[in-house]
């Protein structure tokens, strides 16, 4: 049971972005939502639509619904909108108020890069605590089958995502509701833990998750190599098909597949250290 002093019973701040793509170094923010929840009051929502100054890919537009033409007509200049978002975060994201996210290292990292790009400085996370539903769910329910995207995780915990899924405001509110559900279901691991300690736990959990994924992929690469040595061609062919490799199995093709798998393992291992924010490139 949640105690009266649980962070989940206090003031909460939620943040989400829709972007031009998924590359934190090169892609840009298109829309943003910042929601403040104060116990006993209706959520206070502020939203921004931004003209990022670059093309929005068809794939990204299909997800969030914002085309290049639309944001050029209706969006605000990036420096103006981002300046307001940074100001609001500076005012509202305090040592007592956690920021609620889902896959928050992506949001914080792309915002940091946008700050450097347009405002001359990035995002500070010093003495600021984040509650990341994705990181927590991966830890408290490690072996659950199925997807771990926001919609799937919300469905598992009985959180309504609504018809406006993939809009920043709907996703922010869903992530906040999900965080409360996680706090209530796992009070000893999450809900009744002091914010600095919970933040530290999530950092450790994310690193451990990256290591587990890396070890699993390394075992997969070794298993594929063994299947090839044993000439179990049907299994090798099926394996390559899952990797979208259409070439006929050969020593070179299997070696390439094993190398690719080990490279993914290295990426997961490295990603484990990138929470709550990805370090800027040297």
Topology summary:
Blueprint: E1 12-19, E2 29-37, E3 44-49, H1 58-64, H2 68-74, H3 78-92, E4 99-101, H4 104-119, E5 130-132, H5 133-140, H6 150-157, H7 168-185, H8 187-191, H9 195-229, H10 233-242, H11 251-271
Parallel strand pairs: 1-4, 4-5
Antiparallel strand pairs: 1-2, 2-3
Helix pairs in contact: 3-4, 5-9, 6-7, 9-11
What is the end-to-end distance?
46 Å
Radius of gyration: 21 Å
Biggest β-sheet: strands ordered side by side in the sheet: 3-2-1-4-5
Beta-strand residue fraction = 5-15%
Number of individual domains: 2
CATH class category name of the largest domain = Alpha Beta
At CATH level 3, the topology of the largest domain is Nucleotidyltransferase, domain 5
Mean pLDDT across the residues is 96
The stretches of 5 or more residues where confidence is low (pLDDT under 50) are: none
CATH hierarchy: architecture of the largest domain: 2-Layer Sandwich
DSSP summary: helix tally? 11
Q: Bin the helical content.
A: 40-55%
Oligomer: single chain
Tell me how many strands there are: 5
Largest sheet report: 5 strands, mixed
User: CATH H level of the largest domain: which superfamily?
Assistant: Ribonuclease H-like superfamily/Ribonuclease H
Structural class determined from secondary elements: alpha/beta
Element order: H for helix, E for strand: EEEHHHEHEHHHHHHH
The geometry reads as globular
Output the keywords.
282 residues, alpha/beta, Nucleotidyltransferase, domain 5, 2 domains, 5-stranded mixed sheet, globular
Account of the 3D structure:
- By secondary structure, the protein is α/β, with parallel strands linked by helices.
- The chain folds into two domains: 7-193, 2-Layer Sandwich (Nucleotidyltransferase, domain 5); 210-270, no CATH class.
- 53% of the residues lie in helices and 10% in strands.
- It contains eleven helices and five strands.
- The chain has helices at residues 58-64, 68-74, 78-92, 104-119, 133-140, 150-157, 168-185, 187-191, 195-229, 233-242, 251-271, and strands at residues 12-19, 29-37, 44-49, 99-101, 130-132.
- The protein starts with 11 loop residues before the first strand and ends in an 11-residue tail after the last helix.
- The mean pLDDT is 96.
């Amino acid at each position: 049971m949640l105690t009266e002093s649980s962070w989940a019973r206090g003031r909460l701040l939620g943040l989400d972005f829709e972007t031009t793509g998924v590359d934190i170094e090169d892609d840009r923010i298109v829309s943003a939502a910042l929601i403040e929840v104060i116990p006993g009051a209706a959520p206070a929502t502020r939203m921004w639509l931004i003209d990022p100054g670059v093309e929005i890919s068809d794939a990204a537009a299909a997800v969030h619904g914002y085309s290049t033409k639309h944001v050029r007509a209706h969006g605000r200049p990036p420096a103006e909108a981002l300046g307001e978002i940074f100001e609001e975060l500076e005012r509202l994201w305090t040592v007592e108020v956690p920021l609620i996210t889902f896959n928050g290292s992506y949001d914080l990292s792309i915002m940091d890069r946008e700050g450097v790009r347009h405002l001359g400085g990035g995002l500070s996370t010093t003495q600021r605590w984040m509650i990341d539903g994705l990181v927590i769910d991966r830890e408290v329910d490690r072996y659950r089958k199925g997807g771990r995207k926001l919609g799937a995780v919300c469905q598992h915990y009985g959180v309504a995502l609504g018809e406006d899924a993939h809009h920043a405001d709907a996703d922010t509110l869903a992530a906040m509701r999900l965080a409360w559900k996680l706090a209530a279901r796992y009070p000893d691991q999450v809900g009744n833990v002091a914010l600095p300690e919970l933040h530290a736990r999530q950092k450790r959990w994310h690193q451990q998750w990256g290591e587990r994924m890396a070890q699993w992929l390394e075992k997969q690469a070794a298993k594929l190599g063994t299947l090839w040595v044993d000439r179990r061609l049907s299994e090798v062919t099926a394996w390559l098909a899952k990797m979208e490799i259409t070439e006929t199995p050969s020593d070179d093709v299997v070696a390439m597949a094993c190398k690719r798998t080990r490279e993914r393992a290295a990426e997961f291992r490295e990603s484990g250290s990138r929470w709550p924010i990805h370090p800027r490139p040297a």
